[in-house]
Automatic annotation (TrEMBL):
Name under which the protein is recorded: 2'-5' RNA ligase
Gene3D superfamilies with a match to the protein in the record: Cyclic phosphodiesterase
InterPro entries linked to this entry: Cyclic_Pdiesterase (IPR009097)
Amino acid sequence: MRTIELTCDPAFDRAVRTVWRTLADGGVDSLADNPHPAHRPHLTLAVCGDLGPERLAEAEELLAGALPLEVRLSGLLSFSARSRRRVLAWGVVPGPALIDLHRELWRLLAAEPDPNPLYLPGRWMPHLGLTRRVEPDGLTLAHRLLGRHPDLTGVFDGARSFDSNTQSTRDFFI
């Protein structure tokens, strides 16, 4: 599996990590302690079976022309994660620039193998992950810890691709 992701500028990254830490310190299995060395807050735009070097270069060019991109995070989302476990995420308000970028990226990826249908235009729910897979009581605790979760405006200023086979990332624009 290969992803295309947007990454946060330093201030946005710190703000999301603060929420991760609040959850972890309160006893929720958040993303604060993910051991992968390249783990950081990100917005996944696309997931496919594989992406060759040519397609990655085209995606990088498209993203370079679209960033930096300001977005607003608003509201908490919960996604099923097998069995009764759930994942908690912070919703990204999909403004016109983000929707257009997402659509254009998928035009580039149209012929790529095994696209994940949850990331296709019309089905994609843009979000930044906050927790790992948690039981319902963990989800309840997360809501209690975060209370009325405020909106946050931030900037995506970078992009990368993650390869699940090698567990490696390729940063764009370097």
